[in-house]
Amino acid sequence: MSDSSSQEPKYRYNPLRDCWEPAETVPEKAELTSSLTAEEQQQVAEWKAQETAEQEERFQKILAAMEALTEQRDQWAEDFLDRITWRGYSVHNGIRRKIKKEDLPKKRRPIRPVW
Question: What are the tens digits of pLDDT across the range 69-107?
Fold first, then answer.
């Protein structure tokens, strides 16, 4: 009986090509290297920082707009829950199912925009 742990693996993952290849063709230490110069890497870092700051600013505006709608959104949710208790929702071909008031959620989680 042969010990499989002492044998060389037949295939090895090659991160440079993002695939599995025969072990003998994959370098022992395959590392991803950047083809950018130091100056280009600095420009990329600055661009990322600028984009992140702009996205953060946009997010803050969206968050403020969402928070301004809180009361109206809560009323919409309340209207919806009221509507499904007396009118119901469509199940199939004109068949409606009503939800009992005791089956409605007691406390809803706050609605938040996702970053």
Answer: 888 988 988 898 889 898 888 888 888 888 888 888 877
How far, in Å, CA of 56 to CA of 53, rounded? 5
Amino acid code (one letter) for 113: P
DSSP bridge partners of 95: 92
Q: What are phi and psi of 107, to 5 degrees?
A: -130, 125
Statement: the pTM of the whole predicted model exceeds 0.85? no
CA of 43: how far to CAs of 32, 35, 37, 80, in Å?
A: 20, 14, 10, 50
By CB atoms closer than 10 A (0-12, 13-18, 19+), residue 81 is: middle
Is the four-CA dihedral 69, 71, 72, 73 of positive or negative sign?
Answer: positive
Joined together, the tokens standing for residue 109 give: 């989680």
